[in-house]
Amino acid sequence: MLDLKGYGPTIFEGAVLTIELALLSLLLSFVLGLIGASAKLAKGKAPRYIATTYTTVIRGVPDLVLMFLIYYGGLNGMNAFTDWLYETSNGEIDWVITFNEFAAGVITIGIIYGAYMTETFRGAFMSVEQGQIEAGKAYGMTSRQIFRRIMFPQMMRHALPGLGNNWLVLLKTTALVSVIGLSDMVKVATDAAKSVGEPFLFFIPVALVYLGLTAVSEWGFKVLNARYSAGVAGAK
Amino acid sequence: MDTIIALLDQNEIFTSQAIFHYWDGIVSTVQLVFLSLVIGLFLAVPLAIMRNSKNPFLNYPVWVFTYVFRGTPLLIQLYMIYYGVTLIEGIQETVWWVIFEKAFYPCLIAFTLNTAAYTTEIFRGVIEATPKGEIEAAKAYGMSWSKRMVRIVLPSAFRRAIPAYSNEVICMLHGSAIASTVTILDITGAARDVYAQHYTAFPPFMFAALLYLALTMAILFAFKTLEKRMLGHLQPR
């Protein structure tokens, strides 16, 4: 069996962490994307302005730099906050907040891909016909009902290709968390490669896991696509 | 100049030394990205033509190459080439060591192969989308396959590839930040050094972010101008 010089189980744990991290970040970015797209399409100037700044800045800066900013910056901010608490309470409140690297990773990747999702969803929202929304209003639906019954199911069909792309890029971006010290499969493989001195033995299986995840995702999106395109003439 | 340096030296974090450190970072980021993009572009043209060929012996290997390089993280590719080569026993004694001693070349190789894979797929798409009529017209004129490629297919494909390619350029700029993980002093590397000196994260990384943002804007502007010139006939009037 493939025991990878005893590192097999650790690499497997790393792979599980990668998948958990990717799925949770996807969830966060999905929610942020929906909020961002709604803000961009809102009538008010302020939400549009905020959302545009968010997407422009995030998409103009490398993921790794944003990760350092949020992770190390968050660390600094927490320390400053606990110091301030300690001093203002004259030593009464002495908190030690442990900074959770996993949460930091999820938040960072979620915020980054939320910007990409915003653009995807914005385009998809715009492709739902205005007449359908008006019809919903004419039936007396609330705006929540319109979103859940009319907008969302039809928007998803247009958003799926972009969503699939974003997911595949997000999955590969999770490799960066190894740089801030999270034990994902890249970190585990790098440590193993350095101590054993056989880099290919560890990096090739990890690369294969990424390829496998990519292939599974492509298949999954095909299935989803078929589901959301049901009843649309000419759609594959 | 001296007054600027004197002024900077009053600053706690952004001393003149730190600014020069960032400058070195900008130079190596631009060097790495520019070189890998140019070499990758030259590799991508023949690869894309092979990828479009009906011969499975030409098509299939290129498909494997692009699938592997687009399906795995750039970080893994960089580590494989960097550690893969430097950890080979006895490499220090060979002539190759001159090249691989510095992290620059492994990094350049990884970036080049990665961008070549993405660019190949971009070109494959636009070559495939060449209007049938143009090729039929060229055939009717009696042009050979190579003449058709050089005169008809490639020029129009290059033009139509510009929007997608500008995305790839920006992706490469942003991807290049991982060069700092293999000891290269790029913009991110400079920011990490300044962070390690002072242990305050916001100023050094914010400055790096602004530098990347400025480079991104410059690239976008350049491509917008190019698009206007080359794709003017496709723009709404």
Please, could you describe this protein's structure?
- The complex is a heterodimer of chains A (236) and B (237).
- Chain A is mainly α.
- Chain A has a single domain (4-228), classed as MetI-like (MetI-like fold, Orthogonal Bundle), CATH 1.10.3720.10.
- Chain A is 78% helix and 0% strand.
- Chain A has eight helices and no strands.
- Chain A has helices at 8-40, 45-60, 63-88, 101-126, 130-138, 143-173, 185-196, 199-228.
- Chain A is flat, with a radius of gyration of 22 Å.
- With 237 residues, chain B is an all-alpha fold.
- Chain B has one domain (17-228): Orthogonal Bundle (MetI-like fold), CATH 1.10.3720.
- Helices cover 78% and strands 0% of the residues of chain B.
- Chain B contains ten helices and no strands.
- Chain B has helices spanning 2-10, 16-51, 56-71, 74-86, 96-100, 104-128, 132-140, 145-175, 187-198, 202-230.
- Chain B starts with a helix and ends in a 7-residue tail after the last helix.
- The A-B interface holds A 57, 59-66, 68-69, 71-73, 75-76, 168, 172-176, 178-179, 186, 189-190, 193-194, 197-200, 203-204, 206-207, 210-211, 214-215 and B 67-68, 71-76, 79-80, 83-84, 87, 89, 173-178, 180-181, 188, 191-192, 195, 199-202, 205-206, 208-209, 212-213, 216-217.
